[in-house]
Amino acid sequence: CYILAVETSCDETSVAVVKDGKEVLSNLIASQVETHKAFGGVVPEVASRKHVENVTLMLEEAVRKAGIGLNDLSAIAVTQGPGLVGALLVGVVAATSLSLALNKPLIGTHHIAGHIYANRLVANLEYPCMALVVSGGHTELVYMKSEGNFEVIGRTRDDAVGEAYDKVARAIGFPYPGGPHVDRLALEAEEAVDLPRVWLEPDSYDFSFSGLKSAVLNVVNQRKMRGEPILESAIARGFQESVVEVLVTKAIRAVRAYEAKQLLLCGGVAANRGLRQELERQCREEGIELIIPPFEYCTDNAAMIGAAAYLKWKKGQFAGLDLKAMPQFSLEAWSVQES
Ligand code: ATP
Ligand code: MG
Ligand code: FE
């Protein structure tokens, strides 16, 4: 089974060919980070226009690089949501047109299911398993009783963790996307500013990062007012320690409570070295099998969309040519129907 997958939900245009949901034959990514940097964040209008410029050529190139012909394709998959509506529409129109022209089935795919199934590109998954999704727009603990069956047991009540990283980075003077800068500073720092941990109710798997972000902004503003040095690296380390402690503790508690066989880490913040190190250390101590995809499959890419779409391919659950972009799209609703 060869799935051609298209991802345009945010600021990466990506097209991939994935064999049997796990073997990546090609995975082209055109990042717009440099374009959006000047604006301090993603500008939706600009993102859509860039996707239009890139997607058609990338479709051809992805198939060519995979070493197959258009007629060898089994299906066309596309990220249906969640994401920016204008950006999603570009991918949906491209995939729908190709599906019509080639007379191949179309598979509407969920972006976060893609982030989770990026793990399938590097490991065999054993169910039940637990996924910790940490990205620019999402922070979730997702329980999977069986393949393609998603239950969101915890989510952020305010900022996503990547969003908090980007805002903290901006406050201490770093450009978008700021996560990697904060990560680097945190690991170099000799001291850490003392910042709160937000646990919410004792039994909750939910997260909240806006209070922590405000605490950082307060420290920065007070130091500025007093004319003191900001001590960016101590702030970065304090922030990262708080984030990592809460994420790791809740993820491990969830694995235990749900008797999950594996913990899957995914999303752009999975690139964070502080998070990876601490999660690896604690999972080793606790005897939990941890899977983390390589960096190229953590940030937005179409290979992960091909991996998730394969779940629907196996069940023959295809979309019609009236497939709609879904800026808000429930992961649970995308679960593969039992047949
Ligand atoms: P979503 O998948 O929720 O729609 P997204 O696709 O925009 O959001 P990703 O591309 O998965 O998000 O991740 C981007 C985020 O990851 C940014 O907020 C960026 O700052 C963050 N990030 C990248 N590298 C690191 C790092 N080393 N440490 C912390 N954060 C990081
Ligand atoms: Mg992105
Ligand atoms: Fe993403």
TrEMBL record:
EC number: 2.3.1.234
Cofactor entry: Fe(2+)
Cited InterPro entries: ATPase_NBD (IPR043129), Gcp-like_dom (IPR000905), KAE1/TsaD (IPR017861), TsaD (IPR022450)
Organism taxonomic ancestry: Bacteria, Bacillati, Bacillota, Bacilli, Bacillales
Recorded catalytic activity of this chain's protein: L-threonylcarbamoyladenylate + adenosine(37) in tRNA = N(6)-L-threonylcarbamoyladenosine(37) in tRNA + AMP + H(+)
Residues given in the record as Fe cation binding sites: H111, H115, D300
Enzyme class: transferase
Keywords for this protein: Acyltransferase, Cytoplasm, DNA-binding, Endonuclease, Hydrolase, Iron, Metal-binding, Nuclease, Transferase, tRNA processing
Subcellular locations according to the entry: Cytoplasm
Family assignment from sequence similarity: Belongs to the KAE1 / TsaD family.
Single GO MF descriptor: DNA binding
Superkingdom classification of source: Bacteria
Textual note on the cofactor: Binds 1 Fe(2+) ion per subunit.
Cited function: Required for the formation of a threonylcarbamoyl group on adenosine at position 37 (t(6)A37) in tRNAs that read codons beginning with adenine. Is involved in the transfer of the threonylcarbamoyl moiety of threonylcarbamoyl-AMP (TC-AMP) to the N6 group of A37, together with TsaE and TsaB. TsaD likely plays a direct catalytic role in this reaction.
Protein name: tRNA N6-adenosine threonylcarbamoyltransferase
Listed Pfam families: TsaD (PF00814)
Domain Gcp-like: start-end pairs: 23-306
